[in-house]
Amino acid sequence: MERIALMRSAAPFMAMITVECVEVGLTTLSKAAMNNGMNNFVFIVYYNALGTLILLSLYLYNFSRGKRTPITFSLLYKFFLLGLIGMCLLQMCAFTGISYSSPTLAAAIGNLIPVFTFILAVLLRMEKLDIRNHSSQAKCLGTIVAIIGATVVTLYKGPTLISQIPRISSNNLFAQSSSWALGGLLLVITSLLSSTGNILQTATAKECPDEVVLVFFYSLFGTLQSALVSLFLVNDPNAWKLHDRIEIIAIIYAALSTTVFRNTVVTWCLREKGPVYVVTYKPLSIVIAVTMGLAFLKENLYLGSVIGSVAIAAGFYAVIWGKAREKDFATFNGKSERTSDQRAPLLKNTDNDIHELAQPSNLNC
């Protein structure tokens, strides 16, 4: 029993580590496919369509076994929004940003997700901000540091620390490559969309407890939306043809790892642990991305990427620390209130007993 309990407690940890490795593997493989000439919008449509077909088989299997979740108009509306924000817009910004920059930059800027989640929670009044508390101070300071780090990693490359492909480097404060800055901006928008999608997905998961149903329907809506937008943006028929094996491998890997595996696991972890726990593992992706980029894409490593990534990670953990401290304080207050409520009847009974002893006796001598 203890071993089973230990495995259950470790399951979210192992799941999120695997998710980070899978996500970085996807960005690295997709970058290789796009370097080979594959259109990023076509890639999104193909791998989402394949993933949705796989999810359809799982959905029909559960449906045939009698595991049926009632689909209401409210759920369909939320599925539509999840597909639009969490798939269509997010993936188009993400893969376009990666095509202009690198998986390492994508992994670094991905750490802005908890920062944007905190900002959105404050703006939507889902979270109170008391600047006098140390937790709020840590979250505000972490937000500022992370944004500064994102600005550095996006606009400043700096000298090359590890060079594998000869490139013209610059020691100026801002990078000369406009495509790198544009890619960074799109990746920042991706992090904002991801934060919004996590909040919406958490609320939807409470209304729809079946992960397969939730992931299937919002993947279906996201695939249809992505296809409509891509058909409008990509007019060249040749762009929709697959020309190399790396493109097919990237589509199959993305469909299995992201649309099916990642979305299902993240939905489960959001329900079990919440959105803060899910994003806690994001800094790990920087190390994985740098390793894969150097090993498989033969990319250069720049000083600006290192400085910005360290600043983003520091700001990230400051926000997480503030959130954890705030949660511990709330738990302590909750226990104190329950203890007071439990002790109150005892005190009341004691007072009554004393009052009764002080009254004259009604017994006749």
Report on the structure:
The chain is an all-alpha fold and 365 residues long. The protein has 12 helices and 2 strands, in the order ααααααβαααααβα. The chain has helices spanning 2-35, 40-64, 73-100, 103-109, 113-123, 134-155, 178-207, 211-233, 245-273, 275-279, 284-297, 303-358, and strands at residues 160-162, 301-302. A two-stranded antiparallel ribbon has the order 1-2.
- Provide mean pLDDT, rounded: 79
Main sheet attributes: strand count, strand direction, barrel closure: 2 strands, antiparallel
**Strand content range:** under 5%
Q: What Rg do the Cα atoms give?
A: 26 Å
Write a short abstract of this structure.
By secondary structure, the protein is mainly α. It has helices at 2-35, 40-64, 73-100, 103-109, 113-123, 134-155, 178-207, 211-233, 245-273, 275-279, 284-297, 303-358, and strands spanning 160-162, 301-302.
Topology summary:
Layout: H1 2-35, H2 40-64, H3 73-100, H4 103-109, H5 113-123, H6 134-155, E1 160-162, H7 178-207, H8 211-233, H9 245-273, H10 275-279, H11 284-297, E2 301-302, H12 303-358
Helix pairs in contact: 1-9, 1-11, 2-8, 2-9, 3-7, 3-8, 4-11, 4-12, 5-6, 5-7, 6-7, 6-12, 7-9, 8-9
Task: Spell out the key features of this protein.
single chain, 365 residues, mainly alpha, two-stranded antiparallel ribbon, 2 strands, disordered C terminus
